[in-house]
Amino acid sequence: MAPAPKPAAAAARVQKSDMYLWEGLDKNGKKVKGEMSGVSDNLIKAVLRRQGINPTSVKKKPKPLFGAGKKKITTKDICVFARQMATMMSSGVPLVQSFEIVGRGHENRSMQDLIMDIKGSVEAGGTLAEALGKHPLYFNELFVNLVTAGEHAGILESILNKLATYLEKTEALKAKIKGALFYPTAVIVVAFIITTILMIFVIPQFESLFKGFGADLPAPTQIVIKISKFFQAYWYIMFGGIFAVVYGLIQAKDRSRAVAHFMDRISLKIPVIGEILEKSAIARFSRTLATMFAAGTPLVEAMTSVAGACGNIIFYDATMKMRDEVATGTQLQVAMRDSGIFPNMVIQMVAIGEESGALDSMLNKIADWYEQEVDDAVEALTSLLEPLIMAVLGVVIGGLVIAMYLPIFKMGQVV
Fold first, then answer.
1. Half-sphere exposure of residue 85, counting CA atoms within 13 Å on the CB side?
2. Which of 85, 218, 270, 354 has the most neighbouring CB atoms within 10 Å?
3. Pick from 108, 137, 107, 134: which is nearest to 119 by CA?
């Protein structure tokens, strides 16, 4: 028996969508034009006719040369998109028209294409959540789940505002953590590079100068010269080894749960930095759970998205274990206490929230508190590291300079 031909709808689904420029006449005979995403010009014409527009011209939008005008889509772009859509909806603008206005007003062409693709999916009869779910790189499970809840409850505008606020606060927290870690890392890397340059290019010049002294060199100078010779002979192995170790650890963490668990547990025990990472994880946990709970998502379903938002596998495992306990009827406060990773203050505030029926409000207060704690810890870390790093650099660079000038001072005393 010959195989049955594939339906046209199935064939259309596997085709790649393109952007089309269209022109036409509305019901009043007025000229209108715009952009639309679709798999063919015939599909675009059909959609336009359903909207009461008689298409006169539909042609594929030319792609920019070498990606001109296209930039990477960031979390900030997604945040602005959510806020703009909420504003449009609160003003009474229809959903499809909101996509058109927001998309045309965006400077990033990649974001324009993304919005127009979502618009095309919604115009084809899909829900907003389904349209967003086609782009998991930009809209994660948390985002899609909350939009689904908003559509079902008829509070999509409120949910989009909550998502925008959530993304703003989460990104601000991430920026603070990165800022706290970037400064010492950058200084250490620059110091290592400068030291390497001195060892490979500068110290050998001094060594050739000292050979004509005819006297024994001071011990510090001999040590520096030996280190310099080691750098000259094995510098490529050192740099390659450091790169290989860093790259290997990153790959091992991504591929091995045991390595990720070990590294995340060690990171939480690093003085000062571990405290910042722990507080940021608690803030993310509280903020994400508060946002999902306020949107009407059942607690057990929300815990899965909350676990992924913590940013630490220790908190991920603990949250998933808490989810299983809550699913069997255990109170959230009891499950948090059993996990052993949440401070007593957090557990007590959650207990008050559960008893008073204001869990989302209490979780937001916990998130606000710990985000402020992260701010204070980052400032304390910065104020502590600045003099410490300057002292270390002074000892290293100053020690090299002194070691190289000791023979000159000794020769001056002899003369």
1. 26
2. 85
3. 134
pTM, to two decimals: 0.64
Which helix (H) or strand (E) element contains residue 214? Answer: none
Nearest to 168 by CA among 106, 84, 82, 79: 79
Residues contacting 372, CB < 8 A, separation 6+: none
Alpha-carbon separation of residue 110 from 64, 118, 129, 171, 309 (angstroms): 11, 13, 20, 21, 25
Tell me the pLDDT tens digit for each residue of 217-270.
788 888 888 888 888 888 888 888 888 888 888 887 777 777 777 887 888 888
Closest CA to 296 of 154, 108, 129: 154
Pick the closest to residue 194 from 396, 403, 405, 388 (CA basis).
Answer: 396
Q: What is the pLDDT of residues 272-318, one digit of tens each?
A: 788 888 888 898 899 888 888 887 888 888 888 888 778 788 888 88
d(CA 148, CA 153): 9
First-to-final CA distance of the chain: 107
How far, in whole angstroms, is CA 296 from its chain's centroid? 26
Most confident of 157-171, 207-221, 307-321, 359-373: 359-373
Which residues make Cβ contacts (< 8 Å) with residue 415, sequence separation at least 6?
A: none
Tokens 């110290």 found at: 203
- For residue 365, the model assigns a pLDDT of 92
- Residue 20: beta bridge partners? 36, 60
- Token pair for 166: 């959530």
Taking the C-alpha atoms of residue 87 and residue 82, their distance in angstroms, rounded to an integer, is 9
* Residue 68 pLDDT greater than 70, yes or no: no
pLDDT of residue 411: 65
The sign of the torsion formed by the CA atoms of 182, 185, 191, 196 equals negative
Q: What are phi and psi of 34, to 5 degrees?
A: 180, -165
- In whole angstroms, give the CA distance from residue 144 to residue 284: 18
**Contact at 8 Å (CB) between 155 and 148?**
no
User: Which token pair is 112?
Assistant: 């324009």
